[in-house]
Amino acid sequence: MEEKVFHIPVLPKETIEFLSPAPGEIFVDCTLGGGGHAEKILKRIGPSGKLVGIDCDPEAIRESQKNLARFKDQVIFVNDNFINLKNILQNLNISGIDGILFDLGVSWHQLETPERGFSLKEKGMDASLDMRMNPAQQFKAYDIVNFYPEKKLRELFFKLGEEPFGGKIAREIIRARDRKKIKTCGELLDLIRRATPPDYRFSRKGHWATKTFRALRMEVNQELPTLEETLPQALEVLKPGGRLVVISF
Ligand SMILES: C[S@@+](CC[C@H](N)C(=O)[O-])C[C@H]1O[C@@H](n2cnc3c(N)ncnc32)[C@H](O)[C@@H]1O
C-alpha cells in the first residue's frame, strides 16, 4: 500500500549541524509538523534527553505522535501556538533549553489537503477560503477577501506577497464582492487571473497566484507578528550556549 507523505523535512543536515544536539539535552521544536526534524533531534539527544514538540494544528500533533511513538517517553506533545512558548515551558516546569527549532510555513500535508484552502491545484478550487493552520481559529481567508478595505488588501498583497499586481488584484476583488461574496479558492483565482496580464502569468516559474495566496495565508495565521513576539521569548528560555535555528524560504 502506498504511504502518504505528511511532510519531508527541509535542510535536515544543516538543521542538525547548527542545532548540534547532544545526549541528555533539552530541545523545543516549535513547528513539529510530521516530526521529521524532531526525530533527528531525538536520535541525537538519546533516552536521557527531552523534546517539547509544539504545533497549532491538531492533525500535525496526531501524525507526529504516530511517527515518534518509539520516543514517547522523551517527547512532550503540545497542541498550541508557539506564541505561548514561555508559558508552555513554565507550565511544564522546564527551563534551560539547549536548542529551539522553528521551521516556518505550512506543511506538505496542509498544502496538499484541498479542503483547507491552501492549494492552488485543480482539486482545491472548490475549497472555501480558509487557510487556517489552527482549525479552531475563527478568522479565515474569507474574512480578509470579503471584508478588508481596498487599501489594506493592496498593502497586504504588496508587502506580504510582494505581488507587483497587488493593486489591480485588490481592485478586482472589491468590484466582485460588491456583487456577491467571494467564497472559494477558484473564485479568487479567477479574479487574480483577470487582474494580471497573460505575459506575467506565463513568465512565472511557479503558479502565478502563489504570491497572493501566500500573503493571505500569512495574514490569516498572523505569521510575522507571531514570530516577532516569539523570537525574544526563545532567546530568554535558551540557556547560555543554546542554539536557535529558524528555517524560512
Ligand atoms: C513546515 S511545517 C514543519 C514540518 C516539520 N519540521 C517536519 O519535519 O515535519 C510547519 C508546521 O508549523 C506549524 N505552525 C506554523 N505556525 C505555527 C504557530 N504559530 N504555532 C504552532 N505551530 C505552528 C504548522 O501547523 C505546521 O505543521
UniProtKB/TrEMBL annotation:
Annotated keywords: Methyltransferase, rRNA processing, S-adenosyl-L-methionine, Transferase
GO MF term (any one): rRNA (cytosine-N4-)-methyltransferase activity
Record Gene3D superfamilies: Putative methyltransferase TM0872, insert domain, Vaccinia Virus protein VP39
UniProt entry tagged with the keyword Methyltransferase: yes
Gene Ontology, cellular component aspect: cytoplasm
Alphabetized InterPro entries for the sequence: RsmH, SAM-dep_MeTrfase_MraW_recog, SAM-dependent_MTases_sf
One annotated GO biological process: rRNA base methylation
NCBIfam families cross-referenced by the UniProt entry: 16S rRNA (cytosine(1402)-N(4))-methyltransferase RsmH
Family: Belongs to the methyltransferase superfamily. RsmH family.
Name of protein: 16S rRNA (Cytosine(1402)-N(4))-methyltransferase
Species the sequence originates in: Candidatus Shapirobacteria bacterium CG10_big_fil_rev_8_21_14_0_10_40_9
